[in-house]
C-alpha cells in the first residue's frame, strides 16, 4: 500500500495545513467553550434543587408529619412539590435517614442511598451524586419544626438527563457559530492559498529552497557588486563584492545609503537622486560604473562594476597614443633635420652643420637634465619626461619651476604619480585649448601655451602646484570641478570624462591632505595640493 505524499506545491501545503489547523482550532475552541457551559448548567441544577428543598422544608405540615413519621402525609406533599417543580425526586427522611417519601412508593421505609448526616447536622448541601435514580444534581437541607428542632432532611434531585438536554440545546447554537467560523476560516485559507499560488508561480517548496541557495551562491560568487534597497531606501542586501568596492562596514542591512556612505555622487546615485545608465563614480581610489533599476515593490537594485584597472589602462593607452604620435612627429622632424644636415655637408658648410647638430641635441638634453636635476623620484621623473614629450608634440611648453625639488623618498609613489599625472593632463588640455581658432580672445596672439609644475618638499610634507595658461576656471565652478562626472570637455567614445579630479581629491583627502584651485599667474587655472605625510623623514634631503 502506497503511503500518501505531502503536497509539493506551496499553495497546496498551505491550504492543507491551514485547513487542518483551522478545523483543529475550531474544535478545541468549541470544546473549551462547552466545558464551562456544562459546569455552569450543573451548578444551576444544584442551586435549583437546593431552592426546591429549602421551600419544601419550610412547610410546617411536612415537618409535623415527618416528626410523627406519617409517611402518607409526607408522600402526598412531596409528590405535589415534585410534579409542580419538575424535579426528579423529592425525598423526606426522618432523623435516622429512613425515607418517608419517594417517587417509588416501594422504597418508602428504606434508608437513603446517600449520607444524610450533613443535613441532619443543620448543613445545606449541594452535589452531583449517583443514587438509586441515577446521576442527579442534588440539594439537601435540614427539616425543622417551628421550635428549630431538626426532625429529618429534605433531599431534592434533578436528573442528569434534563441537564444534558439543556446542554444539547445550547450546544447546537455554539456548534452553529463554530461552523460559521470554520467556513469563514476555510474561505480565507483558500483565498490566501490562491494568492500565494499566484505570487510563487505555483512552484514547489523544494524549488524555492533551491532557488534561495542558488541566489546566494550567484550573488556572492559574481565579481560585480549588487546592492538591493527597499522602498524606504534601506539596504536589504549587499553581496561580498559590493561590500569590498564600497568599503561598507559590518551590519549594513537595515541602514540607509546615507548612513554608510559619505555625501557625494556615489551616495546620490545609489539612493536614486541621480538617474542615468552607466554612471561613473569614485570611491576612494576606485572608479565605479553604477546602474540602478527600480523594482516592482518600490525598492531598487544597484549594480557596481570596478573600472579602476580599465581606467588606468585607458589612461596608459591615451598616454601611449600621445607618445606614439609624438615619436612619429619627432621621426618626421628628425628626417627633416637629417636632410638639412646632409644638405649642409654636401654644400661644404661644415661649421654650420656642426652648430646645427649641437643646437638640436642640446634642446632635448636640456629638458631631460632639468627634470632629473629637480625631480629625483624615478617614477615622477619618468612621468614628467613623458608628459614633456607629449606637451611638445601638442604645441604646449611644459616647465618645471626653478625652485622645485622632490627627493627619492615618496611614501606612495603610485598615488603621487596618479595625482600629478591627472593634474598635468588637465593642464595640458586646458593650455592646448588656447591654440584653437575659437579659443579665448584674451589669449595673446603668438603666445606659447604653457604648463608649469612646482614640487616643494618640506620635511615629510609635499606641495604640488600645476598651473596653466588656459581659459581658467570661474570662481563659482571651483568646487564643482571635483565632482564625479562633471566635465567641461566632450567625453570620448571609449571612456567617460569627469573622473580625474574627483579621484585626485579622494586620494589627497585619504592621505590627510587638501586640494584647492585658484587663478594662475600664467593666466589660466592653478591647482595646489598639500600632502602632509607624502615623504619619508629618514631620506636625505639635498639643499634647495
UniProtKB/TrEMBL annotation:
This enzyme's EC code(s): 2.7.13.3
UniProt protein name: histidine kinase
Source organism phylogeny: Bacteria, Bacillati, Actinomycetota, Actinomycetes, Kitasatosporales
Catalytic activity: ATP + protein L-histidine = ADP + protein N-phospho-L-histidine
Keywords, in A-Z order: ATP-binding, Cell membrane, Kinase, Membrane, Nucleotide-binding, Phosphoprotein, Transferase, Transmembrane, Transmembrane helix, Two-component regulatory system
One GO term describing the cellular component: plasma membrane
Subcellular location(s) of the protein: Cell membrane
Principal cellular location given in the protein's record: membrane
Domain of life: Bacteria
All residue ranges annotated as the Histidine kinase domain in the record: 391-535
Organism: Kitasatospora camelliae
Membrane topology, as annotated: Multi-pass membrane protein
PANTHER family: SENSOR HISTIDINE KINASE DCUS (PTHR43547:SF10), TWO-COMPONENT HISTIDINE KINASE (PTHR43547)
One of the GO BP terms on file: regulation of DNA-templated transcription
One Gene Ontology MF term: ATP binding
Pfam families assigned: HATPase_c, PAS, sCache_3_2, SPOB_a
TM segment ranges: 170-193
Amino acid at each position: 500500500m502506497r503511503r500518501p505524499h505531502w503536497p509539493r506545491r506551496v499553495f497546496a501545503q498551505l491550504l492543507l495545513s491551514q485547513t487542518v489547523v483551522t478545523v483543529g482550532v475550531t474544535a478545541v475552541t468549541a470544546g473549551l467553550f462547552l466545558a464551562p457551559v456544562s459546569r455552569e448548567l450543573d451548578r444551576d441544577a444544584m442551586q435549583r434543587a437546593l431552592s426546591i428543598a429549602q421551600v419544601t422544608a419550610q412547610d410546617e405540615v411536612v415537618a409535623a408529619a415527618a416528626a410523627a413519621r406519617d409517611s402518607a402525609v409526607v408522600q402526598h406533599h412531596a409528590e405535589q412539590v415534585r410534579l409542580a417543580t419538575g424535579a426528579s425526586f423529592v425525598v423526606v427522611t426522618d432523623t435516622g435517614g429512613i425515607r418517608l417519601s419517594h417517587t417509588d412508593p416501594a422504597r418508602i421505609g428504606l434508608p437513603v442511598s446517600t449520607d444524610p448526616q450533613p443535613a441532619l447536622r443543620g448543613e445545606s448541601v449541594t452535589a452531583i451524586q449517583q443514587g438509586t435514580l441515577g446521576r442527579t444534581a442534588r440539594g439537601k437541607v435540614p427539616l425543622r419544626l417551628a421550635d428549630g428542632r431538626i426532625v429529618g432532611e429534605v433531599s431534592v434531585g434533578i436528573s442528569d438527563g434534563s441537564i444534558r438536554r439543556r446542554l444539547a440545546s445550547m450546544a447546537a447554537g455554539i456548534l452553529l457559530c463554530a461552523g460559521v467560523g470554520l467556513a469563514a476560516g476555510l474561505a480565507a485559507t483558500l483565498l490566501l492559498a490562491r494568492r500565494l499560488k499566484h505570487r510563487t508561480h505555483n512552484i514547489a517548496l523544494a524549488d524555492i529552497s533551491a532557488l534561495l541557495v542558488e541566489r546566494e551562491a550567484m550573488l556572492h560568487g559574481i565579481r560585480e557588486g549588487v546592492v538591493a534597497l527597499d522602498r524606504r531606501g534601506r539596504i536589504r542586501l549587499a553581496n561580498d563584492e559590493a561590500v569590498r568596492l564600497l568599503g561598507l562596514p559590518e551590519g549594513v542591512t537595515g541602514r540607509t545609503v546615507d548612513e554608510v556612505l559619505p555625501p557625494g555622487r556615489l551616495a546620490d546615485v545609489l539612493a536614486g537622486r541621480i538617474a542615468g545608465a552607466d554612471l561613473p563614480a569614485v570611491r576612494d581610489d576606485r572608479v565605479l560604473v553604477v546602474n540602478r533599476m527600480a523594482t516592482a515593490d518600490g525598492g531598487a537594485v544597484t549594480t557596481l562594476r570596478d573600472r579602476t584597472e580599465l581606467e588606468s589602462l585607458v589612461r596608459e593607452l591615451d598616454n601611449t597614443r600621445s607618445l606614439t604620435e609624438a615619436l612619429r612627429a619627432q621621426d618626421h622632424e628628425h628626417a627633416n633635420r637629417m636632410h638639412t644636415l646632409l644638405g649642409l655637408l654636401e654644400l661644404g658648410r661644415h661649421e654650420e652643420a656642426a652648430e646645427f647638430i649641437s643646437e638640436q641635441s642640446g634642446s632635448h638634453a636640456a629638458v631631460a637634465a632639468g627634470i632629473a636635476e629637480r625631480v629625483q623620484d624615478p617614477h615622477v621623473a619618468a612621468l614628467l619626461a613623458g608628459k614633456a614629450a607629449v606637451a611638445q608634440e601638442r604645441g604646449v611648453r611644459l616647465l618645471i619651476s626653478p625652485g622645485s625639488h622632490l627627493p627619492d623618498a615618496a611614501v606612495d609613489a603610485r598615488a603621487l604619480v596618479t595625482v600629478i599625472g591627472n593634474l598635468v593632463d588637465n593642464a595640458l588640455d586646458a593650455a592646448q585649448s588656447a591654440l584653437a581658432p575659437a579659443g579665448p580672445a584674451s589669449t595673446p596672439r603668438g603666445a606659447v601655451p604653457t604648463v608649469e609644475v612646482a614640487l616643494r618638499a618640506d620635511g615629510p610634507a609635499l606641495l604640488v602646484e600645476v598651473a596653466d595658461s588656459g581659459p581658467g576656471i570661474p570662481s563659482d565652478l571651483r568646487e564643482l570641478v571635483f565632482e564625479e562626472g562633471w566635465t567641461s570637455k566632450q567625453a570620448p567614445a571609449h571612456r567617460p570624462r569627469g573622473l580625474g579630479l574627483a579621484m585626485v581629491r579622494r586620494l589627497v583627502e585619504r592621505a590627510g591632505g587638501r586640494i584647492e584651485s585658484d587663478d594662475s599667474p600664467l593666466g589660466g587655472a592653478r591647482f595646489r595640493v598639500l600632502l602632509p605625510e607624502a615623504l619619508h623623514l629618514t631620506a636625505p634631503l639635498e639643499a634647495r
